[in-house]
Amino acid sequence: MKHGFGIVGAGGIADVHARAVQAINGTGPVGIYDTDPARSFSFGQRYSCRIYDSPDDLCRDPDIDIVCICTP
Q: Which CATH number belongs to the domain containing residue 41 in this structure?
């Protein structure tokens, strides 16, 4: 069974988590949220995932089962 992963925070550690999700789950993250829209956009492009305007929006997505918090 594949799980839908969302990521909050698009810094360097988010890439580590995204690659781990790909290796374990066989698919990349479903979505990303970051306080900096440019970082969210860049991450979303890199991993072909949805971009959210708020962490609440990300958590409300029924396709996301697990959220990785990648903020300091």
A: 3.40.50.720
Domain that includes residue 65, residue range: 5-69
Alpha-carbon distance of 33 to 19, in angstroms, equals 17
Note if the pTM is more than 0.85.
Answer: yes
Q: What's CA 22's distance to the chain center, in Å?
A: 11
Query: Can you give 32-64 as a three-state secondary structure string?
Result: EECCCHHHHHHHHHHHCCEECCCHHHHHHCCCC
Q: Which residue has the higher pLDDT, 17 or 1?
A: 17
Contacts of 6 (CB under 8 A, 6+ apart): 29, 30, 31, 32, 33, 52, 58, 59, 61, 64, 66, 67, 68
